[in-house]
Every structure is written in structure tokens, then in C-alpha cells.
Amino acid sequence: MSGPVRWEHRVYSGNLRELAQVRNDLAADLAGFDPDLVAALQLCLSELFANAVKYTDSGTEHGEVVRTLSLPGPAALRLSVSDSGGGGGLPRIPVERDGDEWDWAEGQRGLLLVQNLSRAWGHHPLVPWGDLGTNVWAEFAVDPATVPQGLRPYVFTH
């Protein structure tokens, strides 16, 4: 790999019925990568996609979720999900819970999972004004020796 690699972004309707397609597309885009890495990314993508649908306008009738994927360097793979905004808040892990509360909690574990499977994660607004969308990203460690040979700087997905 001589430089960064970017995959063409994918746009999905904001419906949880899309999750199987979202996971399948990611697996196809990452063909040749370590299967355990692909599985971790699929799990994190599922959580980020579900959060976008549940907590933002992405889950409304005409809402959308955008997935991006890049290999900014030989040892990092970055996955991101952008929502349609309108959620009124920012992604966060509930820090006010104690161990027992986490044991009994039925939700809000997705970002905790992303935090534990990735080497870093974060978020930023799509624009500096209003609630017009948030991009949530996670970065994963990649062994450079396992990166498939022949990746072009821009990978078309359609």
C-alpha cells in the first residue's frame, strides 16, 4: 500500500431492515482482510447504524445513513457512520451507571462495545451549525502484513 485507501461511501435508508445488507456490503468491501477484523467491524457498524436510526432523523421516513470506510495508513482501518441529525444530543457512553446497573441495563451498550473493539472512536458534527448530522467514527488496528495487495487509492463499491 503506497498511500491512503478510501472506499466509495454507501448510503442506506434509515431502517433497521437494512442491517443485513449493511453488514454484507461491509464484508464484500473488506474481502481479503482478516475475518476476525471484518467481524468486529460488522458488529460495530451494526451498533452505529442502529444508533443513527434510533436516535436521529435518519430513522424517519426519508432518513438516510451514510457509511464511509478508509485505510488512512498501513496499520489503521477507519469506519464511520453519518446520520441525518435531529437527535438533539451527542453520542456518549452512560458513565453514571455502576456495575450492577450495567448488568441489568437492556440498552445503551453499543458505544461501549465500539469502544472496546476499536482502538479509538469519536464523533464530530457534519457542519458547525445546527443539528444537521453527526459523524461517528471508529478506528481499528490492522497488521500491515495482512492488508490485501493491490488496493487502489479509491475503491468503487457499486
Query: Number of DSSP strands?
Result: 6
What is the CATH-assigned architecture?
2-Layer Sandwich
CATH superfamily label: Histidine kinase-like ATPase, C-terminal domain
Largest sheet: 6 strands, mixed
Total separate domains: 1
List the keywords.
single chain, 158 residues, alpha+beta, Heat Shock Protein 90, 6-stranded mixed beta sheet, 4 helices, 29% helix, globular
Walkthrough of the structure:
The protein has 158 residues and is α+β, with helices and mostly antiparallel strands. It has a single domain, classed as Histidine kinase-like ATPase, C-terminal domain (Heat Shock Protein 90), CATH 3.30.565.10. The chain is built from 4 helices and 6 strands. A hairpin with a 2-residue loop joins strand 2 (64-73) and strand 3 (76-82). Helix 1 runs antiparallel to helix 2 (35-55) and helix 2 packs antiparallel against helix 4 (110-117). The two termini are 22 Å apart. The mean pLDDT is 90.
Give the topology.
Elements lengths: L4 E9 L5 H11 L5 H21 L8 E10 L2 E7 L16 H6 L5 H8 L2 E6 L8 E8 L12 E2 L3
Parallel strand pairs: 1-6
Antiparallel strand pairs: 1-2, 2-3, 3-5, 4-5
Helix pairs in contact: 1-2, 2-4
Quick summary:
InterPro entries: Anti-sigma-factor_SerPK (IPR050267), HATPase_C_sf (IPR036890), HATPase_dom (IPR003594). Keywords: Kinase, Serine/threonine-protein kinase, Transferase. This protein is of the alpha+beta class and 158 residues long.
